[in-house]
Amino acid sequence: MAGAGPAGAAAARMLAIFAPDLRVLMVAPVEKRPCRGEVLSPLAPPVLRHLGLWSAFLAQGFAPSHHTFTAWGEAGLRSSEMLLEARGPAWRVDRARFDDWFASAASSAATRIDAKVSDLERDADGWSVDCGDGGRHAARLVIDATGRANALVRRQGRRARSQDRLVAAYAEGTTSEQTAPELLVEAFDDGWWYTMSLGEGRHAFVCMTDADIARGLRLNKPHGWHAALTKTHFISAIARKISRLDAPRLVAAGGRFAAMPVGFRLLCVGDAASAFDPISGHGVAKAMRSGVFAAYAAGDCLVRNDGTALDHYGAWVAREAAAYEAALREHYVSESRWADRPFWRRRCSDVSSSSSPHQ
Question: pTM of the predicted model, to two decimals?
């Protein structure tokens, strides 16, 4: 397995439970996430319970989030009450700390190598995996959990289908004043923003737009980033309480889908299989869940000799991606105030073309 993010770690954990006789090798360099602030949707706790890690998650001290505030589709601010959610609240996490904890807790049964896969070749029994200084290993099945890089699939000459050019311009700030800890999402003419508390006086501010628009706005420069921030009403009000703001960083955040290689013992999980637009709020839960289902498919293939298991997993990934795309289009079209602006026009035209009988 290449990668130790939520998807790869969940797959390793589930394999240890479902197929304990299998040896799992996890190849992943130690890396830090560039963005820390994230909210886990109410879909995440059931997966953590399924993996037997719910009590350990609660012990990390992450804060529940019972409200999400949005300025979307209208000028006012609305609150989504998660106290009434049957699945329970969302959870505010420092994503870097969550990933470190989850990788350690979930992949404890795997052998981890601090390296990257430098070469991948098919052989009679499966795969020959070259990990550089980490040595060469034989694998009956490989799992690509390398996120948006799709490192293993790309080595097989395949590329993911990009759905958009979304990027995140991320910055953290420090404040000595009390600010609302809840997630706040606000649309503006060139995309949308979100902000949330990271605890200990730190706050995350993120501008989401397309890569070409980000270049035009110069979102990688403080003056361009601040100019875009002034286009918001509610998020800029919170930003005015920030005493010191770090330089913004641009991070790829677009939706993508990687078709499953047919006839290979190779599975993609998490963002390597399908990357969701962050507006969905389900990225981490989706990644962990795909890791769980991939583990079941791998176990059925290798232990039970079920030749159809990998195809069933690929079909599930495709169905999930299709359902997500339909929901995403519906959500974006609900914001019509700037329908003539490039960011919103692209998403509205996607809706129009997808609903056309000639497509």
Answer: 0.87
Contact (CB, 8 A) for 346 and 210: yes
| Residues 238 and 142: beta-carbon distance below 8 Å | no
Q: Please report, for the domain that includes residue 288, its CATH number.
A: 3.50.50.60
Name the 3-class secondary structure at 323: helix
d(CA 156, CA 129): 13
Tokens 């830090």, residue located: 32
Q: By mean pLDDT, which of 75-79, 324-328, 355-359 is the weakest?
A: 355-359
Same domain, 139 and 174: no
Whether 99 maps to a domain, the answer reads yes
Query: Encoding tokens for residue 176?
Result: 């000595």
104, containing H or E segment? helix 95-106
> Are 111 and 39 found together in one domain?
yes
Least confident interval from 67-76, 250-259, 308-317? 250-259
What's the structural domain count of the chain? 2
**For tokens 């390398």, what's the residue?**
146
| Burial class of residue 331 (count of CB atoms within 10 Å of its CB; 0-12, 13-18, 19+) | middle
Q: Which CATH number covers residue 198?
A: 3.30.9.100
Do 54 and 99 fall within a single domain? yes
pLDDT digits (tens, 9 = 90+) for 121-132: 988 888 999 998
